[in-house]
Amino acid sequence: MSARAAVFDVDGTLADTNHLHTVCWWEALRQAGHRVPMVSVLGAIGLGSSDLLEHLLGQDRDRDEDASLSAAHKTLYATWFERIAPVEGAAELLRRLHADGWPVVLATSAGGSELAALRAAIDADDAITETASADDVKEGKPSAEPVRHALELVGAQPQGSVFVGDSVWDMQAARRAGVVPLGVLSGGVSRAELEKAGAAEVYADTAELLRELDGSAFGRN
């Protein structure tokens, strides 16, 4: 059991995948006759499938289409599995925190073969204590539930815990869960948007956070 935990989003934070997801969702939507600007799709990345479709297509969309759109996205995205690249410094940061005594927990909407591909790309399983996937919770980010579940997995408390993510949804979820939200710019969201969503600190990527670790929220907790 630990009083604190280091919780990490995966897509866009530890793995350089947000633009891949954007293209795959854009193509899945295009094939179904929906013309959605890529910039709008990018802004929705980080939400679970149902929430993403509601964000892009609205509440009055044909919900019967959700399953086929999600399946098309998964099929398109799977073609990239072997080419997924980690964000610079991701594995080194996780190993440093693990060595410093932080339980490291992944909180991601990915599951199954997609999560396996992400973990293989990051290549730091020796530093990851637990993983909280979308399959484990009823609501995805920006709900606090994924972050709270991640803390529960290692018996950690919100106070003293830190969440690192790249989206406004990550920052909102972390704030609602009562943990310190740190933002990274590697997912394509601006510093201003992350700060507006509640980020206590913002870094270019995990490599910069690692270099500045002692002066960050991790160093103060």
From TrEMBL:
SUPFAM superfamilies: HAD-like (SSF56784). Keywords: Hydrolase. InterPro entries: HAD-like_hydrolase_sf, HAD-like_sf, HAD-SF_hydro_IA, HAD_sf, PGP-like_dom2. The keyword Signal does not apply. GO terms for molecular function: hydrolase activity. The keyword NADP does not apply. This is HAD family hydrolase. The lineage of its organism: Bacteria, Bacillati, Actinomycetota, Actinomycetes, Kitasatosporales.
